[in-house]
Input
Amino acid sequence: MKNLDAALHLRGETRFVDDLPEPEGTLYAAALASPSAHGRIARLDTREAARWPGVLAVLTAADIPGENQIGTILPDEPLLADGEVHYVGQPVALVVAASAAAARSALGAVELEIEALPAVFEPREAYERGLLIVPPRSFVLGDVEAAWKECDCILEGTAESGAQEHLYLETQGSLALPGEHGTVKVIAATQSPTGVQRVVARVLGVGMHAVQVEVQRLGGAFGGKEDQATPWAALAALAAVRLGKPIKLVLRRQEDMRCTGKRHPYVSDYRIGLKSSGEILAYEVTFYQNAGAAADLSPSILERSLFHATGSYYVPNLKATGISARTNLPPNTAFRGFGGPQAMFVIEGAIARAARALGLEAAAVQEKNLLREGDTFPYGMAAAGCRARDCWAEALRRYELEAHHRRVHEFNRTHALEKKGLALMPVCFGISFTNTVLNQGGALVHVYTDGSVAVSTGAVEMGQGVKVKIQAVAARVFPIDPALIRVESTTTLTVANTSPTAASTGADLNGKATELACREILARLLEVAAEELATGKYGAGEADRDEPGADRGSVEIAAGRVVWNGEPTDLSWRSLVAAAYARRVSLSAQAHYATPKIWFDKTREKGEPFAYHVYGTALSEVTLDCLRGTYDVDGVWAVHDLGPSLDPLVDRGQAEGGIVQGIGWLTMEEVLYGEDGRLMTRDLSTYKIPDMHAAPRSLEVHFLEGGSNPLGVFNAKAIGEPPFMYGIGTFQALRAAMHAYRPELDLPLVAPLTPERVLSLLYPERLRELELGQPARAGGVPKAGGGSATKTTAKKR
Ligand code: LUZ
Ligand code: MOS
Output
């Protein structure tokens, strides 16, 4: 099996929002984006723009019939700016015209005067000014203060990880169709149809039952459409209802990059304490999350950082604090890993640095502290079915770590200006939305009288292959040709009150619901089968015809036909379905699945928030050109805890894609804003993502067998997010190569390590000289220095 859309994609026939046939009379909308990062709107005059050729209307906050509010977690985000603007790119007005070009050209005719207010872009500065999204939170385990005294080595430092642009292939967009009785149907590129429905209803001042949201598929999302597809859908719906016409609103790439939020950049302070053996006794970390101008999903993302503060390790004494800082950037949002990668980035950096200080291999310190069965996570849950050490050991064995080490060592000994680095990266990622209520899914299954099946769920297909998995689930319960099973588009009419397809849970939650609905229909069909067989028409069951209570338990379906006592009968799936219809038995079922047992108490910050954890270990090798600062990823080789895959090809695609995306985040992808808060890296000539050449030369993912996971569909584990974090290992391998060249440097823990940055970190003296305009010092070989621009030197408290 492969992605159900593969053939359509290959032929370019797949329809994304922008490819849908437009109903007659469709109008086009474009948003006027704030040019200012923070200011008071002194004047907003739309009259000139409204007279522009082709323009039918210019809408502002005053035109919103309901609430001008789109916030999901906090009500702090207007749909259209009202009185103030808080980031460059914030929608201020909406121009509706006969063509998209006319709408865009009229944007310049809107007269907008903004009185600038002071803008803040750095999370620490925002924190110091008291600009917080939510109050700080801390997760505590043991007693860090007491533990420092027991440590042989204590290191303090800071860590910085950058933003990341989602760069989904399909930009944000919606087509809104006004209906009768004040209803509207919105075809949106969203991970969260219910989220769009709720906000559209709120903005229009109507009930959710007046709003239908439909999603066929997305051209990628990665979290970028979990919350941030909503404003564009709501703007299209607003215009559709105001003008009574179909409205299409699709962002161009630069608009999308400029106006939407990204992965949160984090600045973190850490302190780690170890025994000389490498055992970690205590870890204290404070995450300063750059949330941008509105809450969006930031509090949940920060919460996941706290959950994953200790990565794959058991740390007996921990204090992790999360600070969500409000700045004047576009609201940052969900991105694969959802705050987990930012947290693991810090502890991995801290461990590698501590290992250097102790004269140990990083891998030795990692292994010593890896989670064991029964270890307590900082949030009080015990590691159950822990596979951290199984994956680690299998990675070492399968990928011959010792041989790798020897080769790298030999290479580095014989190459003066090229260096290789190796690093291992263990991953432990909790599966479930950390917000417990979201862990529910629904399915609606119809079997038609010809035996074909339609399955609807709340899952949104975004290229991750969730539909092929749901089809596989239905095909296991109904053992029939998968071609008879169609997985329908996702709409709020078929399955209501859905959670976003996110948190790697799409296949679990919706697959489980599908399984339940199919089983309900199957049970009815088996009843019918037993009765049909008892008629003796199908070459089986005759003996029992007259026996009341004949053994119905032996009736099953296999390979599209009824099997009785292990023997195939003449009763086919199709005939069985027709017989059920003739007996007036329902061939439809709706089911709801809620992850059992999970809970979390926010007052104590303790609970069992995750259904299970996904584990894995990846080995990365990097070759660095020490003169140019450029590098190649020689390979990433992972052992990944997955269990029995529902679709190995799809899962492998997810793992490989996640790895490359994780590498991109920490190496070449650099989001830069100007001093005025304007995005500088707003197209693909200035924002580089990994391509074929940047991808690892060798990329292997081995799925670890064994283990049982009853909380995943048919025992499989979730795949979406965990592999992303293997990229942290590649980043560490690159740092190891840098250390191999300049062992005396205490490199600051900063990402992304673009080649420019690598070069400047390798030659800090040169950089200082250049900055001071001084001639380069004679003598060639750079001297050691704790002098790199960093605060990562050890401090005493
Ligand atoms: N979205 C969300 C997520 O709302 N809650 C989560 O815990 C989560 N985790 C990962 C990705 N998206
Ligand atoms: Mo997500 S980061 O939308 O699972």
